[in-house]
Specification:
The chain has helices spanning 15-26, 62-72, 139-148, 181-195, 217-223, 272-281, 310-328, and strands at residues 2-11, 31-34, 76-79, 83-89, 93-99, 102-113, 117-119, 136-138, 158-165, 200-205, 227-230, 232-239, 242-248, 254-258, 261-266, 268-270, 294-295, 298-300. It is of the alpha/beta class. Helices cover 25% and strands 31% of the residues. It binds iron/sulfur cluster (2 copies). Residues 49-51, 55-61 line the site of one iron/sulfur cluster.
Length: 331
């Protein structure tokens, strides 16, 4: 059997999991990262840099930094394309891990769950025209297209950025604010504008909740020429082969506006893995389906405990490593 009662199992190799592994290594504690994907980095590890004329501190390079730290750290075992499929308490935690080489058992003193969250699938809200109206894209598609160089915008294109997609919506998405998407949608739009100065952006937001607390960012942006409108789009329909957004602006009737592109800025839902691991590890989830940060020998960090930014996920990973140390020392 692999592992030992003073080593730590980390389920999920995104920003929080990699930060936890690197911190444990710094403290001389061995760990094993079990990651379902074929590489470490997680969802945020595939985000593009959102610099304008300067670094905008979007933190998209942070997952790659902690990934490198984890891969170079001593006593960190990495198992990719692998899943924890069984677990039991027996003088610590004994788990079965299924991977490309088959199934094996291993013993650990504690576990850090760091499996992240799941982006909302905008196809679940048919009013938004995702998958049916040409030119309607999710923010993740735009982000990946920018990173890969496949996102081509025609000169002078008109682009709507729609916020709160899948969040603050009891009927179709999550009832809560996903915290990350105001800053994310704003920074991605500004990055696109910088890269393509003719891009005409209309920013349709319901509430402005930037992670970094920059409450004046939208007024400054508007003063520089962006169209910033407080509203919640009701519907996106096809007309003349492109998207038309219907939205109600404050003190206005319903407006209709044609665009070449619409970016749906999606929020974060609990990963389906939360339910599976909750049952496997015997840890109850909260009312929204997220993990508590500590339950006996089971610790959790990053977006599996609730939506949060990349920087906060890294800090939670480091904090969970500290708590795992305390468990190993019998405190
Ligand atoms: S990825 Fe974000 S934090 Fe990193 S250099 Fe680019 S803008 Fe700055
Ligand atoms: S962070 Fe902004 S875009 Fe995201 S759900 Fe909250 S208010 Fe909406």
């Amino acid at each position: 059997m692999k592992g030992s009662s003073n080593s730590v199992l980390i389920i999920g190799g995104g920003a929080a999991g990699c930060a936890a592994a690197a911190e444990l290594s710094r403290r001389g504690v061995p760990s094993t990262i079990v990651e379902a994907a074929d590489r470490l980095g997680g969802l945020a590890g595939s985000h593009c840099c959102k610099s304008t004329e300067r670094c905008e501190r979007c933190d998209a390079c942070l997952p790659m930094d902690v990934r490198r730290d984890a891969l170079n750290a001593a006593d960190v075992t990495v198992m990719t394309s692998s899943l924890v499929v069984d677990a039991r308490m027996d003088d610590g935690l004994v788990v079965s891990i299924s991977g490309p080489g088959g199934r094996e058992e291993a013993r650990f003193g504690s576990v850090i769950v760091a499996i992240g969250a799941m982006p909302f699938d905008p196809a679940l809200d048919p009013r938004l025209g995702y998958g049916s109206v040409p030119g309607v894209l999710s923010s993740l598609e735009v982000d990946r297209g920018v990173r890969d160089g496949t996102f081509i915008i025609p000169d002078g294109a008109r682009m709507a950025v729609v916020l709160c997609v899948g969040s603050r919506d009891v009927g179709r998405g999550a009832p809560y604010c996903s915290k990350v998407c105001c800053k994310y949608g704003y920074q991605l739009a500004r990055h696109l504008q910088t890269a393509r100065p003719g891009l005409d952006v209309t920013f349709l937001y319901m509430d402005w909740r930037p992670l970094d607390g920059d409450l004046d960012a939208l007024s400054r942006w508007e003063a520089s020429g962006a169209s910033v409108i407080r509203s919640r789009p009701a519907e996106i329909v096809e007309r003349n082969g492109g998207p038309v957004v219907r939205y109600a602006a404050p003190a206005d009737d319903v407006r209709e506006q044609a665009f070449d592109l619409v970016m749906l800025t999606v929020g974060l839902l609990p990963s389906p893995g939360n339910d599976r691991l909750s049952t496997l590890l015997g840890v109850p989830l909260d009312d929204l389906g997220f993990f508590p940060t500590a339950h006996g020998r089971v610790l959790a960090a990053g977006c599996c405990t609730g939506p949060k930014g990349i920087d906060e996920s890294v800090k939670e990973g480091i904090a969970a490593a500290g708590r795992a140390m305390s468990i190993a020392e019998g405190e």
